[in-house]
């Protein structure tokens, strides 16, 4: 998902999404003062907790928030996404494109019934789903070991993209209330979770139920995300084609988008 952004249907409904949008907007409008560096994090956290409480966040979620700490590794990762400036060929070489295609083709065969069911329901073929799975976590091999709430809280406090991650933090606190994550949940550097790396707000909006640590749930939720961003069954997904916009919604980096389209086509074109 978008690193600073990604977007499942069991958990999210239009009513719930509207309520969350209003809830998050209220939190953002009164946002505690952002900062640059760890020095102001604890004071920011206290201020944010007060605002969150005023916006209806439960005591249980506030308690989870108060366990968070400033994550310097998250800030380093956020500042260091240099691979997004590579050429497409360089990017694919760095990410192991041929390995993703080979493994993706094998998984498409061994899990044919699952992918057929997903395509029948959401209109998304196996290729782009397998490309996302391979690119995000090496098909589940590397899902991160950072404290999720600390990562999201750190980025909400950090001035670079405070508004975007304030919304993510409010969503994460809702996930705590729903028992989907806890204060000890661990994921990737920006707070992404599961096999295909969903940010908290995307879990609320597109999660299809169950744990994203389960590959089939993650893949189904990813297809729901793509459908929710305009995916049309049977249409193409290369640059300039109808479904490329849904891949663009998955990650903001142009080279990442083009890599997903190419890898997906190579997997689907077996």
UniProtKB/TrEMBL annotation:
The keyword Signal applies. InterPro entries: Lysozyme-like_dom_sf, MltB-like, SLT_2. Residues 41-237 form the Transglycosylase SLT domain. Transmembrane segments: none annotated. Residues 1-31 form the signal peptide. The keyword Signal applies. It holds the Pfam family SLT_2. Keywords: Signal. This is Transglycosylase SLT domain-containing protein. The lineage of its organism: Bacteria, Pseudomonadati, Pseudomonadota, Alphaproteobacteria, Hyphomicrobiales.
């Amino acid at each position: 998902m978008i690193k600073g952004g990604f977007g499942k249907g069991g958990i999210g409904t239009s009513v719930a999404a509207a309520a969350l949008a209003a809830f998050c907007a209220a939190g953002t409008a009164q946002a505690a003062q952002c900062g640059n560096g760890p020095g102001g994090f604890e004071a920011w956290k206290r201020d944010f907790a007060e605002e969150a409480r005023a916006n209806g966040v439960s005591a249980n979620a506030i308690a989870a928030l108060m366990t968070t700490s400033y994550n310097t590794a998250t800030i380093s990762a956020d500042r260091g996404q240099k691979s997004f400036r590579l050429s497409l060929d360089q990017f694919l070489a760095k990410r192991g494109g041929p390995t993703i295609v080979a493994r993706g083709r094998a998984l498409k065969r061994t899990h044919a019934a699952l992918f057929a069911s997903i395509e029948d329901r959401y209109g998304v073929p196996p290729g782009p789903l397998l490309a996302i799975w391979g690119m995000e976590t090496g098909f589940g091999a590397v899902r991160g070991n950072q404290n999720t709430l600390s990562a999201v809280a750190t980025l909400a406090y950090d001035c670079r993209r405070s508004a975007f991650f304030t919304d993510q933090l409010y969503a994460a606190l809702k996930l705590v209330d729903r028992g989907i994550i806890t204060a000890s949940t661990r994921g990737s550097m920006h707070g992404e979770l599961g096999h295909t790396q969903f940010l908290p707000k995307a879990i609320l909006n597109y999660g299809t139920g169950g744990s994203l640590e389960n590959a089939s749930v993650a893949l189904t939720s990813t297809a729901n995300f793509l459908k929710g961003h305009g995916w049309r069954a049977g249409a193409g997904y290369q640059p300039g084609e109808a479904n490329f916009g849904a891949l663009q919604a998955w990650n903001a980096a142009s080279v990442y988008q083009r890599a997903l389209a190419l890898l997906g086509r190579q997997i689907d074109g077996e």
